[in-house]
Amino acid sequence: MKNLNKTDISKLWLQVCFEDDLKAFELLFKSLNPRLIKFCIYYVKHKEAAEEIVSDVFVKCWESRQNLKIIANPETYLFVAVKNLSFNYLKKYSNIHLVQIEESNEIEFVNILDPEKEMEKKELFFQLDKAIATLPQQACIIFRLIKEDGMKYKEVAEILNISPRTVQTQLFRAMKKLSIILSEHQLSSKKAKYALTKTLGIFFVFFKVFFLSL
């Protein structure tokens, strides 16, 4: 389902709180559920747990809808609620080893005209994900919320309960670190590609000499 903008979300929220509109609640759930689960996984690292937490948040919102009429920014409210429940979950199950989320089964399109470039692109995204994972947790979440989910500094600050200035500073540090990591990767990739090309070139020369000598 297409993501709703803030105005649409606010309208649906008002319909839920003032009119007990179940259809509006379902639309709100379908629109925000995937993003909230993705956000929750940043903390709990487990898809099933994240789905349960987000589901609990929506159930509590529906049950308490009469008391949520004054919420000015429902999207931020839901993100904060998910974050708080994630912390509660981690406190409760801190001794449990959480399994990493399984790989996506989504179908990927490959550029058959230039498979080498397509592979390089995939490798770059893979290295970027690895680099993001090395960031401190808060910096990682800030980077993903702003660069992947398109949130503004103020929104992220409200969700994480920090100042917009802190958000900006951590994002700058995260991007600087990622830039260094990816630059090092590209440099090592070029060296590896050069070494492979050189090896193949030498092999080709020996191959020609061997057959010419027959």
Could you please describe the fold and organization of this structure?
With 214 residues, the chain is mostly helical. It has two domains: 6-92, RNA polymerase sigma factor, region 2, helix turn helix motif (Rna Polymerase Sigma Factor, Chain: A), CATH 1.10.1740; 115-212, Winged helix-like DNA-binding domain superfamily/Winged helix DNA-binding domain (Arc Repressor Mutant, subunit A). Helices cover 75% and strands 0% of the residues. It has eight helices and no strands. The protein has helices spanning 6-19, 22-44, 47-63, 74-92, 115-133, 137-148, 153-160, 164-212. Helix 1 (6-19) crosses helix 2 (22-44), helix 2 (22-44) runs antiparallel to helix 3 (47-63) and helix 5 (115-133) crosses helix 8. The N and C termini lie far apart (67 Å). Residues 96-112, 194-200 and 202-214 have low confidence and may be disordered.
Question: What are the SSEs and their pairings?
Answer:
Blueprint: H1 6-19, H2 22-44, H3 47-63, H4 74-92, H5 115-133, H6 137-148, H7 153-160, H8 164-212
Helix pairs in contact: 1-2, 2-3, 2-4, 3-4, 4-7, 5-8, 6-8, 7-8
Strand content: under 5%
Mean pLDDT: 78
CATH class of the largest domain: Mainly Alpha
- Binned, the helix content reads over 70%
Tally of helical segments: 8
Under CATH, the topology of the largest domain can be stated as Arc Repressor Mutant, subunit A
Tell how many strands the DSSP assignment holds: 0
CATH homologous superfamily designation of the largest domain: Winged helix-like DNA-binding domain superfamily/Winged helix DNA-binding domain
